[in-house]
Design goal:
Low-confidence stretches: 75-83
Mean pLDDT: 78
Largest sheet: 2 strands, parallel
Strand content: 15-25%
Structural class: alpha+beta
Number of helices: 2
Helix content: 10-25%
Order of helices and strands: HEHEEE
Strand order of the largest sheet: 1-2
Radius of gyration: 16 Å
Number of strands: 4
Length: 90
């Protein structure tokens, strides 16, 4: 049988090493970020661990988003440089 995509649901990267082991066997991973619950620093540490293990991140799924959480672009372009913009919760 041939498949276009196979999705593996794994435990969080920081407390469990399953993703780091399976990551070497897949083309890329997609991170799931829970709005208002997951710390930005945890997301950044996860991305760093995956990068160090040479695992490609295809994207991020943002879930549990509510109208109370204001999402703004992470960066805006100005004079050929990127400047970070903070995400605020009301």
């Amino acid at each position: 049988m041939n498949y276009d995509y196979i999705i593996l649901d794994c435990a969080p990267v920081l407390p469990v090493t399953d993703v780091l082991i399976l990551g070497s066997k897949v083309n890329s991973v997609v991170l799931v970020y829970r709005a208002g619950k997951t710390a930005k620093s945890a997301l950044m540490r996860t991305a760093e661990q995956l990068k160090n293990a040479q695992i490609a991140i295809k994207g991020i799924v943002l879930n549990y988003i509510t109208p109370e959480i204001e999402i703004t672009p992470n960066y805006y372009y100005h004079y050929y440089k990127y400047y970070p913009v903070r995400i605020r919760a009301n």
